[in-house]
Amino acid sequence: MTNKQAAIKILKRLKRNGFEALLAGGCVRDMLLGKRAKDYDVATDAQPKDVTGLFRRTLKVGAKFGVIIVLIEDQQVEVATFRTETDYVDGRHPAAVQFANAAEDAERRDFTINGMFYDHLKKEVIDYVDGQADLRAKIVRTIGRPAARFSEDYLRMLRAVRFSTQLDFTIEPLTWSAICSNAANIARISGERISMELEGILVNPNRSAGASMLFDSGLVETVFPRLSRQHREKAIDVLAQLRKQVDFALALACFFVGCPTDFAIEKCQVLKLSKTQTKHIKFLLANRGKLLDDGMSLADLKKILAEPYFGDLYELQRAIQMAEGGPDNTAALENLNNRIKELGDIDLRPKPLLNGHDLIRLGAVPGPALGQLSEELYVAQLEGKLQRPEQAEQWVQKWLKRHREIEK
Ligand code: ATP
Ligand code: MG
């Protein structure tokens, strides 16, 4: 069963029991745009207790705010009671909700394009906020006065930029100027929420336009203070060259491509990224430029090819080269490609010919020198200078002799 089918089943049962029930919000917008919606939300005049009474499997996640999750087969559908929200505290959360009718429920939603309902049985759009006109004109506009709506919940500013990016819509001028004058207030929103919206913006193929809006509005200045004008140009140019499908880490590395690695990683802390994501970004930024070095040793080439994020590093570098000089600027990467092709189908991370125990048996002393020996030995192996353990043993003996002489 699809999410849409589950939602329709819920609509029908609510209606049969005398309640009003409509599809609401993002799914109506996407249906009108001819796009497949991520998920289908139901809005109803049934109260949470009515909803839990009508459906066997429910989750009372936000019952206080009138939101119940109904589980049908493998699907989850949000069923929300028509409501108004008041007394916003901390620029994000309503302190109270009152149950209301559909028209009032539309008014509490963020943007006109997100404020429509659809009556599935009558096949009718119910539009109290002129969402259809803005959808046709490709405009993101707050429902009601923008400054007031943002002051209720400042996350909406980032949501505006996200919808504008994802749909390729323009932000209506008054909505835009309210974002610009309130940009500093995005600091009141948690890093996790900011991160989710930023991800929506930067993983979208239209990410370069999204990044421009983030910089121009002043939102970047608040979230990542002291990113200079130069960083801005570089980020926007390189983001524009990136392939369509990328994950958040690669997109963020591109966003920070004009900055020193440590500075970028420090800026990212506010986003509360996972350790893996942080490592990923750090690898990409720290290895900028490396792939252009045609003097790279065979061992270094094999090592970098064996890195899990090599593909992303290549893509980042390709985007940088394209941004800086177009297709004529990618010769170094083509050379690299040729070197990789020449390697053929080889083991990039072969088992070391000798392990630590072997090295100690041959007379190496445990400690930092042993680490250095084993690293140099592995490089010689990757360079193709050593094929068999006996050759490696000879090499180690020479190494030990040389180092003993140096110590004397
Ligand atoms: P997406 O396709 O990205 O999920 P969506 O429009 O469905 O977009 P959701 O965050 O899933 O967005 O929210 C569902 C609906 O709830 C929105 O369409 C909007 O009507 C309302 N909504 C969500 N967040 C807010 C908010 N912060 N302020 C006001 N209304 C909101
Ligand atoms: Mg949604």
Give a quick rundown of the structure.
This protein has helices at residues 3-16, 26-32, 48-54, 102-108, 131-137, 146-152, 155-167, 173-182, 191-202, 207-217, 219-223, 229-241, 248-255, 261-268, 275-286, 298-305, 310-325, 331-343, 356-361, 368-382, 389-407; strands at 21-24, 41-44, 58-62, 67-72, 75-81, 83-89, 93-99, 117-119, 124-126, 139-140, 170-171.
Furnish the topology, listing elements before pairings.
Elements: H1 3-16, E1 21-24, H2 26-32, E2 41-44, H3 48-54, E3 58-62, E4 67-72, E5 75-81, E6 83-89, E7 93-99, H4 102-108, E8 117-119, E9 124-126, H5 131-137, E10 139-140, H6 146-152, H7 155-167, E11 170-171, H8 173-182, H9 191-202, H10 207-217, H11 219-223, H12 229-241, H13 248-255, H14 261-268, H15 275-286, H16 298-305, H17 310-325, H18 331-343, H19 356-361, H20 368-382, H21 389-407
Parallel strand pairs: 2-5, 10-11
Antiparallel strand pairs: 1-2, 1-8, 3-4, 4-5, 6-7, 8-9
Helix pairs in contact: 6-8, 7-9, 7-10, 10-12, 12-17, 13-15, 14-15, 16-20
The chain binds adenosine-5'-triphosphate and magnesium ion.
Magnesium ion binds at residues 26, 38-39.
